[in-house]
């Protein structure tokens, strides 16, 4: 699959990233609150650009990746979600298991967008991956993301450390 298919929910459009998404993407990743549980350090424009470029490589290489999430009414970028292969050096190993992730801009948080978008991508994933396990890693104190994960059926399987940070490893079996 070369690009992310377009998905729609009641309030959101999930589509392939385009270059024009970069300013909003960079703004989201430069926010300290967005990064609070993901490394803890806001990204510079250069670092955001490197992260942005990765969104394009996953789809043609492995057949899945991230979607750019937009509010249907305004068209504004509100966040991202999807699946990826991070090749993480972590125990338990996650290689070969689609890893789910999501991040939303501060103005979009607390509105249910994450649950709505993640549900849509998991419906796509269930159809695309079949009866395959998926995984996500979340900082144990990231209560909002843990709630989204629980709604999708993820259950904690292990606690570990990744890049010096405590992490919960959660699995979802179809």
Number of strands: 8
Helical/strand content category = alpha+beta
Global morphology:
globular
Q: What's the oligomerization state?
A: single chain
**Uncertain stretches of 5 or more adjacent residues:** none
Q: Tell me the β content.
A: 25-35%
Tally the helices: what do you get? 5
In round numbers, the mean pLDDT is 95
Q: Can you put this structure into words, describing what you see?
A:
- A hairpin with a 5-residue loop joins strand 3 and strand 4 (77-84).
- This protein is 32% helix and 27% strand.
- The model has no long low-confidence stretch (mean pLDDT 95).
- Helix 1 (22-29) crosses helix 3 (45-62).
- By secondary structure, the protein is of the alpha+beta class.
- The two termini are 22 Å apart.
- The longest helix is centred in the first third of the chain and has 18 residues, at 45-62.
Explain the layout of strands and helices.
Blueprint: E1 7-8, E2 12-15, H1 22-29, H2 32-35, H3 45-62, E3 66-71, E4 77-84, E5 99-104, H4 113-129, E6 134-138, H5 143-151, E7 155-162, E8 165-172
Antiparallel strand pairs: 1-2, 2-3, 3-4, 4-5, 6-8, 7-8
Considering the chains and any ligands shown, give keywords for the structure.
3-stranded antiparallel beta sheet; 32% helix; 27% strand; alpha+beta; 5 helices; 174 residues; single chain; 5-stranded antiparallel beta sheet
Provide a quick synopsis of the model.
This protein is an alpha+beta fold and 174 residues long. Helices cover 32% and strands 27% of the residues.
